[in-house]
Design a protein that fits this description.
Bound molecules: phenylalanine
Distance between the termini: 87 Å
Structural class: alpha+beta
Helix content: 40-55%
Number of domains: 2
CATH class of the largest domain: Alpha Beta
CATH architecture of the largest domain: 2-Layer Sandwich
Strand content: 15-25%
CATH topology of the largest domain: BirA Bifunctional Protein, domain 2
Order of helices and strands: HHHHHEEHHEHEEHEEEHEHH
Number of helices: 12
CATH superfamily of the largest domain: Bira Bifunctional Protein, Domain 2
Number of strands: 9
Strand order of the largest sheet: 1-4-5-9-8-7-6
Radius of gyration: 44 Å
Largest sheet: 7 strands, mixed
Length: 325
């Protein structure tokens, strides 16, 4: 085979290469040890000294041409394979996407966060306490002695060892004073338990307790705090009244009512009062130096008013239909 024939063959072979296999075969056919170009190069020894450089140059060019063609073919094969997979993996962006539904906070959590956020911003520390309490913290230290009728009011769940499920968040008042001393400003959200179940009562429910202890705290301070809070939660045009009441751990005591904007009826929303000197004393502070105010409210009641919930029990039945409203 002469050089021109080889070149013509080469051009023809490389015209259309559609697979890596074909390209590999061609590589061997031309550039392999026994390939055409190598074989042809051997002829150089049969040439005269004069003709050798010319022949060598032409063979060199041919080899270079072949390498270029291999390179181009290799590139083309890769481009084709990319295009092929792009075509195969094409995404139809007009198809509907897959949808993950997002979780939401429970209405009680939202209400709790709203209330604790408000009080944190006023400088209250968020405090926690145990749900299994001793009778001492739940009753005695709150000025509710054994024979006190208020103990019956609470429908307490007792444990075999004499401890109980706390019936209100007020025991946290005592624990916080014991732990932190005075001055003190705490807000304590948590679960409480009473043996009670109907449309407006569940055996477990949530309260938020507030306590401020300092020097010269008076009822005006308490009233201001509560009014600001009600403004924030229910709007500034909310009608509020303080109704004299009784709690063993506060004196004087009051219940706070707000007027329902639709029905024009008074709704009780919380209990409050000035901390009874006995309570301050039992928690280890001098009642002649320190005074304070406390308030407590039911979170379900607040959620009920904020979200117009009819049946308190729907807060606990985990009904997605209700919760996702
Ligand atoms: N602990 C009272 C209750 O459960 C509420 C309350 C708290 C009243 C603090 C006054 C002061 O009803």
């Amino acid at each position: 085979m002469d050089l021109d024939a080889l070149k013509a063959d080469l051009e023809k072979d490389f015209l259309e290469i559609n697979s890596q296999e074909v390209l590999n075969i061609l590589k061997v056919k031309y550039l392999g040890k026994k390939g055409h170009i190598s074989e042809l190069s051997k002829n150089i020894k049969n040439l005269s000294k004069k003709d050798r450089p010319e022949f060598g140059k032409t063979i060199g060019e041919l080899r270079k041409l072949c390498e270029e063609k291999i390179f181009a073919a290799q590139e083309q094969i890769e481009v084709n394979s990319i295009n092929e997979s792009l075509e195969k993996e094409r995404i139809d962006i007009t198809l509907p996407g897959s949808y993950k539904s997002q979780g939401k906070l429970h209405p009680l959590t939202v209400t709790t966060l709203k209330i604790t956020d408000f009080f944190s911003a006023q400088g209250y520390l968020i405090e926690d306490g145990p749900e299994i309490e001793s009778a001492y913290y739940n009753f005695d230290a709150l000025n509710i002695p054994l024979d006190h009728p208020a103990r019956d009011m609470h429908d307490t769940f007792y444990l075999d060892n004499g401890d109980l499920l706390r019936t209100h968040t007020s025991p946290v008042q005592i624990r916080a004073i014991e732990k932190r001393g005075a001055p003190l400003k705490i807000i304590c959200p948590g679960k409480v338990y009473r043996s009670d179940a109907d449309k407006t009562h569940t055996p477990m429910f949530h309260q938020i307790e507030g306590l401020v202890i300092s020097e010269n705290v008076n009822f005006g301070h308490l009233k201001n705090e509560i009014m600001t809070f009600i403004d924030f939660l229910f709007g500034p045009d909310t009608k509020v009244r303080f109704r004299p009441s009784y709690f063993p751990f506060t004196e004087p005591s009051a219940e706070v009512d707000i007027m329902d904007k639709k029905t024009k009826q008074w709704l009780e929303i919380m209990g409050c009062g000035l901390v009874h000197p006995n309570v301050i004393d039992m928690a280890g502070l001098d009642p002649n130096q320190f005074s304070g105010f406390a308030f407590g409210m039911g979170i379900e009641r607040m959620a009920k008013l904020l979200y117009e919930i009819e049946d308190m029990r729907s807060l606990f039945t985990n009904d997605i239909k209700f919760l996702s409203q």
